[in-house]
Amino acid sequence: MQLDPLPEQVRVTIFMEGLRTGIARTEVFRVHPSTFEEAVDIALNAEFNFKAARYGTHGHAQRSFDGAEPMDLSHAEEEERALLAVEQQRKIRRCYMCGSTKHLRPQCPLRKPLQSRPSRNPPSNPKVGTERENGNSQ
């Protein structure tokens, strides 16, 4: 007892649906082949072309340059560091309280003196509870 083979279009559809997401699947769906053999050839060619473009013909990653020598950037980097240092020296410093360039926040005349600031801890009342401690209760 021999089963009837699947129709050609069904074989093509099953093959296309079974391909993993990637360049081969994209290419087979783009071309939409009419035979199973054509679908397999398209998938294999797409994979081969993708790998050849990515890794070259010998399987090694291709270089992005053709023997060109890289530039020496050390002088440019030193010059950039020097410019940044000069810029930092020129940076205008301002008082955070009033914005003046003549002084900084600790010397700002608008800043309240330390003595006039309220204390964070409330003052303790020395008279509370002294009668009991002295034994002078009436």
UniProtKB/TrEMBL annotation:
Residues 129-138 have a biased composition (Basic and acidic residues). Keywords: Metal-binding, Zinc, Zinc-finger. It comes from the Eukaryota. Residues 93-109 form the CCHC-type domain. Residues 103-138 are annotated as: Disordered. One of its GO terms (molecular function) is zinc ion binding. InterPro entries: Znf_CCHC. This is CCHC-type domain-containing protein.
